[in-house]
Design goal:
This protein has 158 residues and is of the alpha/beta class. It is built from 3 helices and 7 strands. This is Transcription elongation factor GreA.
Length: 158
Protein backbone atom coordinates (compact mmCIF):
# COMPACT_ATOMS: atom_id res chain seq x y z
CA UNK A 1 0.00 0.00 0.00
CA UNK A 2 1.38 3.38 -1.03
CA UNK A 3 1.45 6.07 1.65
CA UNK A 4 1.06 9.70 0.60
CA UNK A 5 2.98 12.23 2.71
CA UNK A 6 1.14 15.55 3.01
CA UNK A 7 1.48 18.75 4.90
CA UNK A 8 -1.43 19.83 7.10
CA UNK A 9 -2.36 22.45 4.49
CA UNK A 10 -2.20 19.88 1.67
CA UNK A 11 -4.47 17.45 3.51
CA UNK A 12 -6.97 20.25 4.18
CA UNK A 13 -6.95 21.28 0.50
CA UNK A 14 -7.57 17.67 -0.59
CA UNK A 15 -10.50 17.38 1.86
CA UNK A 16 -11.93 20.65 0.50
CA UNK A 17 -11.60 19.47 -3.11
CA UNK A 18 -13.33 16.19 -2.20
CA UNK A 19 -16.19 18.05 -0.50
CA UNK A 20 -16.60 20.39 -3.49
CA UNK A 21 -16.65 17.53 -5.99
CA UNK A 22 -19.11 15.40 -4.01
CA UNK A 23 -21.43 18.15 -2.76
CA UNK A 24 -21.42 20.64 -5.65
CA UNK A 25 -20.03 19.17 -8.89
CA UNK A 26 -21.50 15.65 -8.69
CA UNK A 27 -25.12 16.82 -8.09
CA UNK A 28 -24.82 19.46 -10.85
CA UNK A 29 -23.59 16.86 -13.34
CA UNK A 30 -26.46 14.52 -12.43
CA UNK A 31 -28.86 17.38 -13.05
CA UNK A 32 -27.16 18.21 -16.37
CA UNK A 33 -27.39 14.57 -17.48
CA UNK A 34 -31.09 14.49 -16.59
CA UNK A 35 -31.73 17.70 -18.50
CA UNK A 36 -29.77 16.46 -21.54
CA UNK A 37 -31.60 13.10 -21.46
CA UNK A 38 -34.92 14.98 -21.77
CA UNK A 39 -33.71 16.50 -25.06
CA UNK A 40 -34.42 13.24 -26.86
CA UNK A 41 -32.31 10.82 -28.93
CA UNK A 42 -29.22 9.99 -26.87
CA UNK A 43 -27.21 8.80 -29.89
CA UNK A 44 -26.87 12.31 -31.27
CA UNK A 45 -27.15 14.26 -28.04
CA UNK A 46 -23.82 16.09 -27.61
CA UNK A 47 -24.82 17.67 -24.27
CA UNK A 48 -25.63 14.24 -22.83
CA UNK A 49 -22.36 12.68 -23.99
CA UNK A 50 -20.31 15.65 -22.76
CA UNK A 51 -21.98 15.54 -19.34
CA UNK A 52 -21.45 11.75 -19.08
CA UNK A 53 -17.78 12.14 -20.01
CA UNK A 54 -17.36 14.91 -17.43
CA UNK A 55 -19.11 12.75 -14.85
CA UNK A 56 -16.65 9.91 -15.51
CA UNK A 57 -13.68 12.23 -14.99
CA UNK A 58 -15.14 13.67 -11.79
CA UNK A 59 -15.91 10.22 -10.38
CA UNK A 60 -12.35 9.08 -11.18
CA UNK A 61 -10.93 12.12 -9.37
CA UNK A 62 -13.19 11.50 -6.37
CA UNK A 63 -11.96 7.88 -6.16
CA UNK A 64 -8.35 9.05 -6.49
CA UNK A 65 -8.79 11.60 -3.70
CA UNK A 66 -10.51 9.05 -1.46
CA UNK A 67 -7.60 6.64 -1.95
CA UNK A 68 -5.08 9.35 -1.14
CA UNK A 69 -7.01 10.48 1.95
CA UNK A 70 -7.26 6.89 3.14
CA UNK A 71 -3.49 6.42 2.75
CA UNK A 72 -2.28 9.88 3.72
CA UNK A 73 0.43 10.50 6.27
CA UNK A 74 0.01 14.05 7.55
CA UNK A 75 3.28 15.59 8.68
CA UNK A 76 3.03 18.77 10.74
CA UNK A 77 6.56 20.17 10.47
CA UNK A 78 5.77 22.87 13.04
CA UNK A 79 5.56 20.16 15.72
CA UNK A 80 8.99 18.74 14.87
CA UNK A 81 12.01 20.25 16.67
CA UNK A 82 14.16 22.46 14.44
CA UNK A 83 17.58 20.93 13.86
CA UNK A 84 18.64 22.78 10.71
CA UNK A 85 18.13 19.55 8.73
CA UNK A 86 15.98 19.49 5.59
CA UNK A 87 12.98 17.20 6.03
CA UNK A 88 9.55 16.83 4.44
CA UNK A 89 7.49 19.96 5.02
CA UNK A 90 10.35 22.35 5.69
CA UNK A 91 10.87 25.59 3.84
CA UNK A 92 14.41 25.81 2.50
CA UNK A 93 16.32 28.85 1.30
CA UNK A 94 19.14 27.90 -1.05
CA UNK A 95 21.78 29.92 -2.85
CA UNK A 96 23.37 29.08 -6.17
CA UNK A 97 27.06 28.72 -5.26
CA UNK A 98 28.21 30.23 -8.56
CA UNK A 99 25.81 33.19 -8.86
CA UNK A 100 24.64 33.64 -5.24
CA UNK A 101 21.05 33.80 -6.56
CA UNK A 102 18.72 32.78 -3.74
CA UNK A 103 15.42 30.95 -3.91
CA UNK A 104 13.10 29.51 -1.30
CA UNK A 105 11.16 26.26 -1.68
CA UNK A 106 8.64 24.47 0.49
CA UNK A 107 9.04 20.68 0.24
CA UNK A 108 5.57 19.14 -0.02
CA UNK A 109 3.71 16.02 -1.20
CA UNK A 110 3.20 15.43 -4.89
CA UNK A 111 -0.46 16.59 -4.81
CA UNK A 112 0.58 19.92 -3.29
CA UNK A 113 3.50 20.74 -5.57
CA UNK A 114 3.23 24.01 -7.48
CA UNK A 115 6.56 25.31 -8.71
CA UNK A 116 5.17 28.79 -9.40
CA UNK A 117 4.24 29.05 -5.70
CA UNK A 118 7.63 27.74 -4.56
CA UNK A 119 6.24 24.32 -3.56
CA UNK A 120 8.29 21.39 -4.83
CA UNK A 121 7.41 17.72 -4.59
CA UNK A 122 9.41 15.62 -2.15
CA UNK A 123 10.08 13.32 -5.13
CA UNK A 124 11.61 16.03 -7.33
CA UNK A 125 15.35 15.87 -8.06
CA UNK A 126 16.00 19.09 -6.13
CA UNK A 127 14.07 17.97 -3.04
CA UNK A 128 15.72 14.54 -3.11
CA UNK A 129 19.13 16.26 -3.18
CA UNK A 130 18.19 18.51 -0.24
CA UNK A 131 16.49 15.99 2.06
CA UNK A 132 18.63 15.04 5.10
CA UNK A 133 21.17 17.79 4.41
CA UNK A 134 21.73 20.65 6.86
CA UNK A 135 22.14 24.41 6.84
CA UNK A 136 25.56 25.24 5.41
CA UNK A 137 25.78 22.05 3.33
CA UNK A 138 26.40 22.29 -0.41
CA UNK A 139 24.43 19.96 -2.67
CA UNK A 140 24.92 19.20 -6.35
CA UNK A 141 21.72 18.97 -8.37
CA UNK A 142 21.67 17.46 -11.83
CA UNK A 143 19.58 19.66 -14.15
CA UNK A 144 18.99 19.57 -17.91
CA UNK A 145 21.53 22.44 -18.17
CA UNK A 146 24.16 20.57 -16.17
CA UNK A 147 25.06 20.17 -12.50
CA UNK A 148 24.30 23.16 -10.26
CA UNK A 149 25.62 23.49 -6.73
CA UNK A 150 23.44 25.05 -4.05
CA UNK A 151 24.27 25.99 -0.50
CA UNK A 152 21.52 25.49 2.05
CA UNK A 153 21.20 28.93 3.62
CA UNK A 154 18.27 28.39 6.00
CA UNK A 155 15.78 25.69 6.95
CA UNK A 156 12.49 26.83 8.46
CA UNK A 157 9.62 24.90 10.08
CA UNK A 158 6.64 27.05 9.09
Amino acid sequence: MIKYPMTVQGAKALEEEHAHLTKVVRPKLSQDIGTARELGDLKENAEYHAAREQQGMVEARIRDIEGRIQNQVIIDVTSIPHTGKVIFGTTVEIANVETDDRVTYHIVGEDEADFKLGKISVGSPLARALIAKEEGDVVAVKTPGGVIEYEIVEVRHI
